[in-house]
Amino acid sequence: MAIVRSANPNALDLSHAISALQTFSGPFLTQTLGEIEISLRGLTTKDCAAALASCGAKAEVIGAAGLVKRLAGQINVIVHALGILLCLPHILQQGEVIDYVSLGAGNTGRPFDLETNRRIAEFKFIRWQGGAEAIRQNSLFKDFYLMAEHRTEKQKFLFVLGTEHPLKFFNGGRALSSVLSHGVKLQKEFLERYGERYRTVRDYYLPRKEMVLIQDVSAFLPDLLDALAGEG
Length: 232
Description:
Elements: H1 14-25, H2 29-39, H3 45-55, H4 59-72, H5 75-91, E1 98-101, E2 114-116, E3 119-124, H6 134-149, E4 155-160, H7 164-170, H8 176-180, H9 184-194, H10 201-205, E5 212-216, H11 222-228
Parallel strand pairs: 3-4, 4-5
Antiparallel strand pairs: 1-2, 2-3
Helix pairs in contact: 1-4
């Protein structure tokens, strides 16, 4: 079944695009490109068309590459949406009712990924590397902060893939000025509320660590963990 639908009857679907790219790249892309480079030595305009056809350099292949590149930009959104959906049967309690689920990227008009009659929750499906991961840490802090400051009687959950690195970050000494420096709106709000009261992530987190429960959902998503094992 074609994954990508198009009004253009000549447009590639994803399966054909991947097949075209595999045919061009061969088992080892670097080796294939090296062989093409060698084959083009001494080429003249007279032989150009035949040489390109011989090495598989066709307009269809670059179209396939463009399609896969476009779809690859949506992968994180797909992972986030599916991760939430597959976690739901495991985290919902008996009698718990979903108010809304926010699966898309960007401004959806909903403040959190999930809200039920009992909880609010954010999901972070990040494979932590254990090194300097400032951008990921910034995003994680923002989710924690927004839930911690949200006024509600409901429980608050931050669901992650493994708690080791998130908890190490929250209990660490990274300067809040660094964490907030790339989010102008968040930085402005935080400084208006707390000024210079908190200097490090740990300073802000420790008084609030019981407000937001950081919970590991790795056991619910083994296929995602297997897929991310080769990431990086």
